[in-house]
Amino acid sequence: MISQAGQKVQVLIVGAGPTGLALAIELGHQGVSCMVVEKNDRVGYAPRAKTTNVRTREFLRRWKIADKLRAASPLGVNYPSNVVFVTRLSGYRLASFDNAFYCAPGRNPLYSEHAQWVPQYTLEEVLRAHAETLPTVQLRFNCELKSIEQDVNFVRVLVHDRAQEKDFSVDAAYLVGADGARSTVRDAIGAKLEGTYGLSRNYNIVFHAPGLDKAHDHGQAVMYWQINGDVPSLIGPMDRGDKWFFMPTKMPEGVKINDGDAKELIHKATGIDLPYEVLSTDEWAASRFLADRYRDRRIFLAGDACHLHPPFGGYGMNMGIADGVDLGWKLAAALQGWGGPKLLDSYELERRPVHESVLDESVANHAMLGNQLWTDGLEDDSEIGSRLRSEVGQRIQLAKLREFSTLGVVLGYHYDQSPVIVSDGTVAPAKDFINYVPSARPGHRAPHAWMHDGTSLYDHFGMGFTLLVTDDVGDDIVETVRRQAHAAGVPLVVLRPIEAGIAQLYGSRLTLIRPDQHVAWRGDDWPPHSMYLFERVTGRSTNV
Fold first, then answer.
1. List of residues 6+ apart from 81 with CB closer than 8 A
2. How far apart are CA 154 and CA 340, in angstroms?
3. Per the confidence metrics, is the pTM higher than 0.90?
4. pLDDT by residue (tens digit) across 458-508?
5. Cα 124 to Cα 475: distance, rounded to the nearest angstrom
6. Which residues, 6 or more positions from 289, have their beta carbon under 8 angstroms from its beta carbon?
7. In the chain, count of helices (H) and strands (E)?
8. What is the rounded distance in angstroms from the CA atom of residue 239 to the CA atom of residue 218?
9. Nearest-angstrom CA–CA distance, 348 and 158
């Protein structure tokens, strides 16, 4: 029992990884007071994710820090994000995918920001630095959650400050567990991970490799898949100073790798003998897990605390950041009085189907690793070897396209079954992992466009709702919408773009867009029962 009242904040976030920091930033931009407690003494330093995808960078643009991550790119944003399949770095080329994950700079009509190949710890540092500029956000490192209590009014937690060797308590209206795969918060609310553990055993090894980039003939790439009978693996540049990652996949049970073993494995896998210096080794298991629930009253789960999957496709970290944005604006709405109970309920109802879909994608990608692609004779310098390499190359092109050309997954998810989305009766498009077709159908990400002044359409959306008017709608109607939003306490920006192409993209004269850039409602006329519309999209009523 935590008897002593504590410091008061509106939201307490446990975990300062990408999910927790994204949530804190979203809350900070919405003017909500929050505290982030993190048991480690800094943001992450392990290699982990390296792909910051298109959607995540759109969120960063929304927070006006996409340029900061671009400037922090250790390899430079113009470094080609190619993925090359080889027998080994010193061996034969089998296949390649150019511009994997859509990292190439330049304007694309489909999105406002290209993806970026950058270590997760670099992204975390950019997020942390920005969070520290927000007056309502507190970051507390070296602070570990000890216990949680909640009642109908607030959550009270006890936290141990490791640096000062003392405990302190915090009272919050809401608590969010963004504390990763071994979530203390998940355990505290009794939620369970359901799924499959140990689809494969793998290692992530970071090492210093002076000259390795010039010791092979396969050109620049962010990732080289090595398909051989010795050490099927992934390898690639990660950071400045000749820092590379090396990932042996599907390691046999019981095999442990120390630093000395790692050097020998790198040498054997690449066929290149250099003075490698191993910086870290990290064993990890690929699993597929989803929490049986994401909430207990005033406590929520986000990121790896509620979903885990193999990293193939680069979805995990990015999906956690999207969790933070979705939950963040909804918590802000509830705390500021314009969001109702159904809005908070919609967090799990919207995000769980996305998580399930992405888990399926990543498990499908994991099913075809270098271990499965290897066949005897693949490295033979013979006619048979050449034929085998051609056959395996074709298998790679067919099987791995969905892993590196993912725009349909990254941008095509939608929330049309959400209780705070107003359906227009149209049918959802079929899933397509590669082909993203913009749609202004309610629940979908609002179609992107470039304005004639060079800005993105998204740059003109508000942090609250946006009413996009794409035709000659009378000022009286627009004023009615403004008045109703004001009466409902809903922040609203009205946007009237002059670009004809935007009207064609959206199809309807009026489109109501949420803070997270998803369409909440669309129509050619403001509905006669419009007094209920704002109540519906903010979760205060199920009527329309």
1. 99, 100, 101, 103, 104, 115, 117, 221, 222
2. 17
3. yes
4. 999 999 999 999 988 889 999 999 999 999 999 999 999 999 899 999 999
5. 45
6. 193, 194, 195, 196, 197, 307, 308, 309
7. 14, 22
8. 19
9. 26
